[in-house]
Automatic annotation (TrEMBL), chain A:
Alphabetized InterPro entries for the sequence: Isoprenoid_synthase_dom_sf, Polyprenyl_synt
Protein name as it appears in the record: All trans-polyprenyl-diphosphate synthase PDSS2-like
Lineage: Eukaryota, Metazoa, Chordata, Craniata, Vertebrata
Domain of life of the organism encoding this protein: Eukaryota
SUPFAM superfamilies from the UniProt entry: Terpenoid synthases
Keywords: Transferase
Record family assignment: Belongs to the FPP/GGPP synthase family.
TrEMBL record, chain B:
Organism expressing this protein natively: Cyprinus carpio carpio
Matches recorded under InterPro entries: Isoprenoid_synthase_dom_sf (IPR008949), Polyprenyl_synt (IPR000092), Polyprenyl_synt_CS (IPR033749)
Subcellular location: Mitochondrion
Transmembrane segments: none
UniProt keyword list: Isoprene biosynthesis, Lipid metabolism, Magnesium, Metal-binding, Mitochondrion, Transferase
Assembly, per entry: Heterotetramer composed of 2 PDSS1/DPS1 and 2 PDSS2/DLP1 subunits.
UniProt protein name: All trans-polyprenyl-diphosphate synthase PDSS1
GO BP annotations listed: isoprenoid biosynthetic process; ubiquinone biosynthetic process
GO CC terms: heterotetrameric polyprenyl diphosphate synthase complex
Catalytic EC class: transferase
Length: 372, 469
């Protein structure tokens, strides 16, 4: 989609489409939404984590305490509620299922199996989505041993951490696969498997782009971010519709919601450090949206110059300084506009569903991603 | 229990009870039942009917080693014990074999000689591969000349396998390179070959022509993809340098990308599987993915108890190697035949061949040179894994016990363990065990209607045992 048409949404940033004031607090929105689907959506905390294999891993991961292996942070995220709301995807799938209502044909065998407005297969799908998401959180944390230096701690620890990360990620993926098989719908299996492929492609190129050579344009940023952050949610929402035998139209709307919400959420996440006026030191990825957009605006030469300005003798980047530089240009505001754009596209998709608590919850989430 | 009648009469009675008891035993250990029941009752014959007071120490080592599996079964056998004659015999056996003894040197040939003398003809025939008859279908394996080499039989179907797999791996740039890396046609394609032959054998058995269905061909590709994906991950877990004569993906591109490539291959396999459109087949092969991971987890831990160790080893072997072959075979049979017995035949063939394959692999780790295999040997020891030969050797050299528990981590452990193994008959015993699995595989596959493919599958077990790489 042309950049120009996105700019036309600038005006929408401050417009609230709904009469009800939408809560800007993401956490509140999520916890309200959880009530609608019947229970806290911490599927992962019980069934999977209590399995022998993961208990085994947990025991081993304890040995990683004090090391610098990323798996430790991921594991912490399971225990403490992080800002990222690890269960978000599952929640959205459940809400979407509820918002779409029962399957159109009353003679279908699944018709009477609804519990709290959601079919068991849809609940299972929500759990599977979380399993896949978590598996990749874990696999993302694998460390390249060649890049190990003494400051990372003993090599043995990194190797061990890697081993645990591979095994636990694989375990989660395997459970997702058997879960998918039990849905008894090969089309859904195909869809979600393709989502897994998308996530891999997205993450793969995350690790490929390096700081200075930036070939990432805005359009390719969106494509890649869709792969790594949007595909799973979008396709899961679509699959949830399929499971309830909803038609192509509903499937497409659900897909669109998932896609735009995920992109909006990523943008929101990327923008936080640029928008919140705090005094804490900045830490952000050079692949995050505001930076990418900034790079496109200033061009490669000025960018290289700016990088040099903020690097010290050891070529380490002072991120706070860099943030300051970036804020002087329009990268941040473009990212903000794009965030609003996606939030509103998500809202649009929900408009076509019948009004319900679940639909409102999804709309609230779409609004919340545009707020800071 | 009545001791009347001749020794032969009681043998028959006891055997019948054994078969009944074996039928009650759980699947994972039925291999051992099949292996041990003849031995068990030979021994029990000696003990009970010849009224020799044979103690554990008197028992020749090969018997002891083979019967050593019995403690693994002891729980199960114990459950089968009962008031009747067979049950009582089992109970006595359980108690008796619970005694561990000191090592004694005895060669396998003496065991064979003794068997020739005392084993009734029927039992001897079990060991002769070529005389498996199952009514009403007669299995006649003709002279070797007529047997077609399994590789050449499957050749045409295998020809474009790797190219077609690569077509399924739709991705860009570097990721594509990584995914295609092991599909260069240099692998043995052992699994797809079995799958293809099994598919055709099942097709003939089911009154269809021996031509491969497209879905069956897909299964062959999928099985190779799942296998490769697991290899890629295993190389990261084991920090391996080389595979199939080239550097591993993790060494060339780093661990992170290697894991992602493995995940991608898996997702492509999963998509291909779904496209076949058969829910049962999807379930069957998804089980493999779970088994592969669980098998890997099983390798993390070591069992203290010697008896449990062997059981653990065989279960791990099933999960890591045999499950894929067994379930792929089952899947192709499902696609052409609705008879659950046919599925079971296919599954059991795959399972037994798979376990035998891995046992031979474990032997080769000790006996082959590094360059033949394309990966270094004593690799298992270096990873801290105690495989078949080591577990057998441990019975002769109890020093290995401590080394196994600490996973050969102390200096010099790997070398010393290797020496012990080569000095012991661990390799021989593992080979013997592999032979028995192959025999079971043959027994199963012989229940299918005759076809060149079926005979090729029988011949394949020979190849499994004889391979040197």
């Amino acid at each position: 989609m042309a950049w120009r048409s996105r700019l036309s949404y600038i005006g929408w940033r401050h417009l609230s489409i709904f009469s009800n004031p939408s809560p800007s607090n993401w956490t509140k929105v999520v916890s309200d939404a959880e009530k609608i689907v019947g229970y806290p959506t911490s599927f992962m905390s019980l069934r999977c984590l209590l399995s022998d294999e993961l208990s085994n891993v947990a025991m081993h991961v304890r040995k990683l305490v004090g090391t610098k292996h990323p798996l430790l942070n991921t594991a912490r995220g399971f225990v403490y509620d992080s800002r990222n709301n690890l269960q978000m995807r599952g929640l959205i799938v459940l809400l979407m299922s509820k918002a779409a209502g029962p399957c159109p044909s009353t003679s279908d065998p699944i018709h009477d199996s609804m519990v709290s407005g959601i079919y068991p297969s849809q609940r299972n799908l929500a759990e599977i989505t979380e399993l896949i998401h978590t598996a990749f959180l874990v696999h993302r944390g694998i460390v390249n041993l060649k890049e190990w230096t003494n400051s990372d701690g003993p090599l043995k620890d990194m190797q061990f951490g890697n081993k645990m990360a591979v095994l636990s990620g694989d375990f989660l993926l395997a459970n997702a696969c058997t879960g998918l098989a039990q849905l008894n719908d090969t089309k859904v299996v195909e869809l979600i498997s393709s989502a897994i492929g998308d996530v891999v492609q997205g993450i793969y190129h995350e690790s490929s782009t390096s700081a200075e050579e930036g070939s990432l344009t805005v359009a390719s940023w969106e494509d890649q971010t869709f792969l790594s952050h949007g595909a799973l949610l979008a396709k899961s929402c679509q699959a949830a519709m399929k499971l309830a035998r909803h038609g192509n139209e509903s499937q497409n709307l659900a897909f669109q919601y998932g896609k735009h919400l995920a992109l909006g959420h990523k943008l929101n996440s990327d923008l936080h450090t640029f928008v919140k006026s705090g005094s804490e030191p900045a830490v952000f990825s050079l692949d995050s949206a505001p930076v990418v957009f900034h790079r496109q605006i200033v061009g490669p030469e000025r960018w290289r110059h700016q990088l040099k300005q903020v690097q010290n003798m050891a070529r380490q980047i002072d991120y706070t300084k860099l943030r300051g530089l970036i804020k002087t240009e329009r990268g941040v505001s473009q990212a903000l506009d794009l965030c609003s754009y996606h939030g509103n596209k998500a809202l649009e998709a929900m408009k076509c569903f019948p009004p319900s608590e679940a639909r409102s919850a999804l709309e609230n989430m779409a609004c919340a991603v545009t707020k800071f | 229990m009545s001791l009347e009648g001749t020794g032969k009469c009681h043998t028959v009675t006891l055997r019948r009870h054994a078969v009944m008891a074996a039928g009650k035993m759980a699947a994972p250990i039925e291999f051992a039942a099949d292996l041990c029941i003849p031995r068990l009752f030979y021994i029990s014959e000696m003990a009970l009917f010849q009224q020799q007071h044979i103690t554990w120490e008197d028992l020749p080592v090969p018997y002891r080693v083979v019967t050593g599996h019995v403690p693994l079964l002891v729980e199960e056998l114990w459950r089968c014990r009962g008031a009747d004659a067979g049950g009582a015999a089992l109970e006595r056996l359980c108690c008796w074999t619970g005694v561990a003894g000191s090592a004694e040197e005895l060669s396998l040939t003496r065991l064979q000689q003794e068997e020739e003398q005392t084993v009734p003809p029927m039992r001897r025939r079990r060991r002769n591969r070529c005389v498996y008859t199952t009514p009403p279908v007669c299995c006649s394996i003709c002279s070797d000349a007529k047997l077609k080499d399994p590789f050449s039989l499957a050749q045409k179907d295998l020809q474009n396998l790797y190219e077609e797999i690569k077509k399924l791996l739709v991705s860009k740039a570097e990721l594509k390179v990584l995914c295609d890396y092991y599909f260069d046609g240099k692998g043995k394609a052992f699994r797809p070959m079995i799958v293809i032959l099994m598919a055709r054998a099942c097709n003939v058995h089911s009154n269809k022509e021996g031509v491969l269905l497209p879905a069956q061909r897909s299964i062959a590709m999928i099985s190779e993809m799942i296998h490769t994906a697991s290899l890629v991950h295993d190389d990261v877990i084991d920090d391996s340098d080389t595979r199939r004569g080239k550097n591993t993906i993790n060494k060339v591109w780093g661990e992170r990308k290697a894991i992602l490539a493995g995940d991608f291959i898996l997702s492509a396999a999963s998509m291909a599987l779904a496209r076949i459109g058969n829910n049962t087949v999807v379930s069957v092969l998804s089980q493999v993915i779970e088994d592969l991971v669980r098998g890997e987890f099983m390798q993390l831990g070591s069992k203290e108890n010697e008896n449990e160790r062997f059981k653990h080893y065989l279960e791990k072997t099933f999960k890591k190697t045999a499950s894929l072959i067994a379930n792929s075979c089952k899947a192709v049979s499902i696609l052409v035949n609705s008879d659950p017995e046919v599925h079971e035949i296919a599954y059991q063939y795959g399972r037994n061949v798979g376990i035998a394959f891995q046992l031979v692999d474990d032997i080769l780790d000790f006996t082959s040179c590094a360059n033949l295999l394309g990966k270094p040997s004593a690799a298992d020891l270096k990873l801290g894994l105690a495989t078949g030969p080591v577990l057998f050797a441990c019975q002769q050299f109890p020093e290995l016990h401590a080394m196994i528990m600490r996973r050969f981590s102390s200096d010099g452990d790997v070398d010393r363990a290797w020496q012990y193994v080569l000095k012991s008959d661990g390799v021989e015993q593992t080979n013997y065990l592999a032979q028995h699995y192959c025999q079971e595989a043959i027994r199963q596959i012989s229940r299918l209607r005759p076809s060149t493919e079926r005979d090729a599958l029988i011949q394949l077990t020979e190849l499994v045992l004889r391979r040197d790489k």
